[in-house]
Amino acid sequence: xxxxxxxLILALFSALPPGxxxxxxxxxxxxxxxxxxxxxxxxRRSALESAAASLGAIFAHDATIQLAVTSxxxxxxxxxxxxSSEQPEIPFDFFGYSxxxxxxxxxxxxxxxxxxxxxxxxxxxxxxxxxGDQVSPNLxxxxxxxxxxxxxxxxxxxxxxxxxxxxxGTPPGEPGVWSPFDEFxxxxxxxxxxxxxxxxxxxxxxxxxxxxxxxxxxxTFNGPNAMAANGGQPVGLYSPRQWDEGSSGSHLDDxxxxxxxxxxxxxxxTGPNTRELSAIxxxxxxxxxxxxxxxxxxxxxxxxxxxxxxxxxLTIEGNRGTYAVARSTDLNNWVPLTTLTISQNxxxxxxxxxxxxxxxxxxxxxxxxx
Length: 370
Ligand SMILES: [Zn+2]
Description:
alpha/beta; Immunoglobulin-like; 4-stranded mixed sheet; 6 helices; about 25% strand; globular; binds zinc ion
């Protein structure tokens, strides 16, 4: 190793490859007659698996989730599809927030029900589906619907019944057992409806659960990440004036125009639908415990190094992410300098390092995406 008198700076940009962790969904079609149809089954299975794979890729967790598939062919029924998680056995003396089998397996690596399926998916093929990516205006977007439904199984779901009871019939005011999502269920001003003793505020629930449109009324979600993604405000949840079993409380608020077009609204219409989670929906998943894969693309970030008098300016430009900056004199031993964050794709961030004009030695710098 040598340094010449002229400034010698080697810019190294080493970025970790994108995280390979993902949640993998496997499907048991043995009870899904319409998925096994000799003519149409392959396209249906392929569309479900493709949708599930795209959802699984957003998680920075390694898990394989088995979902038992059922199906029907009921043109008169208003059900499109549904998905759910199995629930673990709850000790008699447990009160608090209990993840479903799917969420517990992803977050803790525990398969509480062993070989049994972790959750279920049900599809009504009597509805007009479009299984492709160019969705006809008259057909339902199958892939978007599957992503929406599997998100419910993953934990985007309230467990509070219309009367404020939990799944064991515990009435408001007494300690109950709730889904992790329910920790953040709040009234219109963002005040939590379940207290530190896991008891639901009965009058607050009665008023907010059928309170109508947010942000003035109805239920909200007050998780810290979700609020940060929503301009500091709690996120409106679907709270129609007539309780809608299975929809109320477990969706974003269809009656709030600010949330229009998002994936986790309660109602869906024919035609193409978004298949991406909004920043708010991702933040809600983070609030219920998930770590999401970074969306930054390392190849799209660069480190530039510029000497300006007695200062070396390090600049990282590119995709959103957190970067650890280190310095070395020999390319073997690296000393951490700082951590820099780019808050949005296409942004940049800089850091100044003193330059020793006596030795003219700068050394080497690296930035590694975390
Ligand atoms: Zn839904």
